[in-house]
Specification:
The longest helix has 21 residues, at about 105-125. It is built from 5 helices and 5 strands. It has helices at about 1-15, 30-35, 70-90, 105-125, 150-155, and strands spanning about 55, 60, 90-100, 135-140, 160-165.
């Protein structure tokens, strides 16, 4: 649902930034146009879209408690993400965000989130994504997607998110 919302917002932003045709009338000719004695001159205005990069969140990889290794299911998600990244072409950047559940110390969760992000990055590199295009960041327990103190919620928060930015 989060991915769908982000993609929808990006598409809405892109649609809002697209250029529209605009009629531009010669001010000196405006009075004559009102009287019907002159011909209307219509120019098509070209708009240069500002360089707002489109950022998309790809599939999240989930981890077991206190683990940073990729399961077979997690590798499939990273492989699908790698295909989406390769489809963008050459001008992109990738950020892998490592996250943990809210149990444990801040220092432990930051270190574990970093291990998770680096594990995903290493697999992207093995799949042919240039290491120089991938950065990692660990948020530890600071960016939960679920706030309940349940096993299912903790599992959702033990993840690595991949953000793809087309530049």
């Amino acid at each position: 649902m989060k991915n769908l919302l982000q993609v929808t917002l990006i598409l809405a932003l892109a649609a809002g930034l697209t250029a529209c045709k605009k009629n531009v009338k010669d001010d000196a000719n405006a009075d004559a146009l009102a009287n019907g004695t002159a011909t209307e001159m219509v120019f098509e205005e070209t708009t240069v879209t500002e360089g707002l990069p489109a950022q998309v969140s790809l599939g999240s990889v989930h981890f077991a408690l206190d683990k940073a290794n990729l399961t077979a299911e997690a590798r499939k998600i990273v492989e699908a993400n790698a295909q989406a990244i390769k489809a963008v072409g050459g001008n992109y950047s990738v950020v892998v965000e490592g996250n943990c559940d809210d149990r444990g110390t801040i220092a432990y969760n930051i270190a574990l989130g970093e291990k998770r992000a680096n594990e995903v990055k290493a697999y992207y590199v093995r799949l042919g994504i240039p290491a120089g295009k991938i950065t990692t960041v660990s948020y530890g327990k600071e960016k939960p997607v679920c706030y309940e103190a349940t096993t299912a919620c903790w599992q959702e928060n033990r993840r690595a998110d991949t953000l793809l930015t087309a530049n």
